[in-house]
Design goal:
327 residues; Methionyl-tRNA Fmet Formyltransferase, Chain A, domain 2; Rossmann fold; alpha/beta; 2 domains; 7-stranded mixed β-sheet
Length: 327
């Protein structure tokens, strides 16, 4: 904090990706005047969805606000009354209007789980894996009304492991992002402390390089066996823990069973021209023909209505055999 201004900050977040950032800001020496999170909703008799940021803020004794619509005039007035210098946003769940972004004198910054402008949108971690990116990272940007389009103040890259799943990568990026946000705020504080404008901080994004990372849907988890095995393997890692990667198997009696693929690898062998989805072998693993002559091996799965099990355990009680089709 030496030589920089102490800022009053409003933190906006809901999901687990924002929790390490909140902890880092509490250690930073800046003042967190309030934490804004999504309101808890649940049908009668059911518990609301987990809200890790609310839990962390409450444990820390921080003031928590949860407006139904953060852009409504009443919510905007409440936030303006806090006298914050800066809004810090991560994994919040509501899009901030231009009017709300104009409330704090220093504007707002956002922690995003990709190296922008690649993977703008709600699911950057998942799309980085699914796209086969060798590298991803985090970006701290100045927020604008356009989605994930502001100038990048700090970017931190990291390699994606060859077997890394979305939850594993997201946990690493959350820690990486906490330090990145702290660095970005120190740059902002130093700039204001020197009497300079923060308006020029950051590197503008090149719109020509932007890609989309839209919110996932349940239908995206259904395997298309005409895809090459490498894409299905990436899909399996990217779509954990939701919607997961699923296929179906029609039994001899006509019943269809849904299978969740929990662990798969790409087999080195070619599929010999078999139709995509054809089961090639059931020798302790389930070997399946995929597109472009490739082969996928299923090592672990969850049969519909049952527990997680190895492919070998599943095969002991299943009529699945070579020549049958999945999907």
């Amino acid at each position: 904090m030496h030589g920089v201004s102490r800022l009053r900050i409003v933190v906006m977040g809901t999901g687990p990706f924002a929790v390490p950032m909140l902890a880092a800001l509490r250690r930073s020496g800046h003042e967190i005047v309030a934490v804004v999170t999504r309101p808890d909703h649940a049908p009668p008799g059911r518990r609301p969805a987990p809200n890790p940021v609310r839990d962390a803020a409450t444990t820390a004794g921080l003031a928590v606000l949860d407006p139904e619509r953060v852009n409504d005039p009443a919510a905007r007035e409440s936030l303006a009354a806090l006298g914050a210098d800066l809004f810090v946003v991560c994994d919040y769940g509501q899009i901030l209007s231009a009017e709300l972004l104009a409330v704090p004198p220093l504007g707002a910054i956002n922690l995003h789980g990709s190296l922008l402008p690649r993977h703008r949108g709600a699911a950057p971690v998942q799309w980085a894996i699914r796209s086969g990116d060798a590298e991803t990272g985090v970006s701290v940007i100045r927020m604008t009304p356009a989605l994930d389009a502001g100038s990048v103040i700090v970017a931190r890259p990291t390699a994606i492991g060859p077997r890394e799943t979305a939850p594993e990568l997201e946990a690493r990026l959350a820690l990486l992002g906490a330090d990145a946000v702290t660095e970005a705020i120190e740059r902002i504080a130093a700039t204001t402390g020197a009497g300079q404008s923060v308006g020029e901080l950051g590197v503008p994004q090149d719109p020509a390089l932007a890609t989309r990372a839209p919110r996932l849907t349940k239908a995206e988890g259904i395997v298309d066996w005409s895809l090459p095995a490498v894409q299905i393997e990436r899909m399996r890692r990217a779509l954990e823990p939701w919607p997961r990667t699923t296929t179906t198997f029609t039994r001899d009696d006509g019943r269809t069973q849904r299978l969740v693929l929990e662990d798969v690898t790409i087999a080195p062998a070619a599929n010999g021209g078999a139709d995509p989805g054809t089961v090639l072998a059931t020798d302790g693993r389930i070997t399946v023909a995929c597109g472009e002559g490739t082969v996928l091996e299923i090592h672990r799965l969850v049969p519909e209505g049952s527990r997680s099990m190895s492919a070998a355990d599943y095969l002991r009680g299943s009529p699945l055999r070579p020549g049958l089709r999945l999907g």
